[in-house]
Description:
The chain has helices at 11-20, 32-39, 43-55, 74-98, 101-119, 123-141, 144-156, 158-165, 170-186, 190-210, and strands spanning 29-30, 59-62, 66-69. The chain is mainly alpha-helical.
Amino acid sequence: MNAGPPAAETLTGRVRAAILGGDFAPNQRLIEADVCEQFGAARAAVRETFKELAGEGLVEILRNKGARVRAISKAEAVEITEVRMVLEGLSAAKAAERVTPEQARRLREIVAGMRAAVEGHDLDRYSELNVLLHATVREIAGHRTSAAIIERLGAQVVRHKYRLARQPGRAATSLAQHELIVAAIVARDPEAAQTAMRQHLRSVTKALESTPD
C-alpha cells in the first residue's frame, strides 16, 4: 500500500516551510494565482492548503479578502510558550522514564554540538540543534498527543524564537538550561527533567516579554 509522499513534500508542507522560512512575511496576502504558479499546483489544492494551514494557526482566511500569513503578537507568543512549558515538561518527564542507552548517547551528542556552536558563535547551527534536541525529547517520550500540540504551537512562534536566539548572551543561557534537561533525562529522573524543562521555558517566556514589540 502506498503511504503517499512525505509531509514535507506535500503542497501544504511546502507552503508551510515557505512561511516558517520567511519567504512569506507576517500579514502578507497569499494570492491564490501566485501560489498556484509558484508551487505548480491547482487552485483547489491551494485552497485546501490554506484551510489546513489556517487550522494550524499559520494562515488567516478573511471573508471576501482571501488568505494572509497570520502575525503572532508578542503577547500571544508568551501565552503559547506558557502552554508549551506544561506540555514539554510532561514530555521531558516521559522521556526520562523511557530513555534507552542509545537515546541517551544521542542526547549527549546533540547538546555537545550545541556547546560547540555557542563556542564558535554559530547561532544558526545552535538554533538548528535546539530544535533537534526538543524534537528528540518528544520522540523519546513517545507521547503523541502532547507532541502534536507542541509542534503546532512551536510553528506559530518560530519568528519570535529566531529573534530571541539572537539576543546577546541568550544562546549561552539556553545552553546551560538544555544541559540540565539532558542530564536529568539521561539520569532517568522524571521529576528533575520536568522541572528543568519548565525552568527553561519559563526563562524563554521572560526573555520574550523583554523583547521589543
